Amino acid sequence: MTKPTIRDVARLANVSISTVSRVMNAPNTVIRSKQERVLNAIDELKYKPNALARGLIYKKTNTLGVVIPDIRNSYYADIIRGMEDASKKLGYNLIICNTDHDRNRLFSYLSNFDERQVDGILFTSEPITPDYHKELKRLRKPVVLVSTHSLDYELPSVRINDEEAAYDAAKHLIESGHRSIGWIGFDLSDSIAGLPRYQGYIRAHRDFGLSIRQENIHLVSLWSDDSLDAAHRLFLQNPDLTAVFTASDELAIGLLCYLNERGIPVPEQVSVIGFDNIRMSRFTIPKLTTVAQPMYEIGYRSVEKLHARIEGAEDPILREYLPHELVLRSSTRALVE
Prior knowledge:
This is LacI family DNA-binding transcriptional regulator. The chain is of the alpha/beta class and about 325 residues long. Helix content is about 45%, strand content about 15%. The chain has three domains: about 5-60, 434 Repressor (Amino-terminal Domain) (Orthogonal Bundle); about 65-160 and about 295-320, Response regulator (Rossmann fold, 3-Layer(aba) Sandwich); about 160-290, Response regulator (Rossmann fold). It has helices spanning about 5-15, 15-25, 30-45, 50-60, 75-90, 105-115, 130-140, 160-175, 195-205, 225-235, 250-260, 295-310; strands at about 65-70, 95-100, 120-125, 145, 155-160, 180-185, 215-220, 245, 270-275, 290, 320, 325. Strand 8 (about 245), helix 11 and strand 9 (about 270-275) form a beta-alpha-beta unit.
């Protein structure tokens, strides 16, 4: 037996779909005789309204579409938790879609969001290319960029200042006496986690008068690249490094494994700093020093920001930056000559 719809109720009661919706949501706007017919039809059909049915009338389904590039990446766990908590508070449900960095999947999900009449879209971490922006503009739905941003388009965003955060981490190592500092980062074509974090590493070296040595730098293409292999290649280029700063905690954890397998003590011989402060960074041996992103707060604030756009409320900050923090644990120490 098929589930009854709002159209079935309207047909049985001999009224319009909008009348059925008003009976359910604003009964005082409907005359008594029509109210009774609609209520009798609802009772007879055992109809239970759903978000999509309400959306047919009010163009609001209380759902938000979330685009995640790699659901396996633990970085997104706290972001999604923040989104979920804020959505529950504000009366939304989330539709979470994993793109695997695949353009075709992304476009398919955006089309699906349109069909499901989501009220807004949370676009996470990937750079906004011209074709992505064109599609988002075509959908004509409020959008907030989460842990990403766009300088080319006027799209609201919530993130940290990645360049400043990376600068603070590299500065800490330099002020701790390190002069040969390795960098394992993402490809510079990545304008979110790649180029800005690299620029922070470079700026710290220049501010302290240190030379930039290419053998101290190794770049990977994707978050999922083999971190053990990245560590191996970096130390092949320069085995005399006394510290390494990585663009993510996952890369740092791979580096810790590499150093442990080769009997290189951390931090006695090599200090290690990661980036993100994912949950596992507290349980590595030694515990990982890292740049903490307020991931839960980024997710929570992004929903609040999107809600303001949906409701037409004033939101004076287009590109919103939340504070980062350098969390010092036992994987780093001052260099003792």
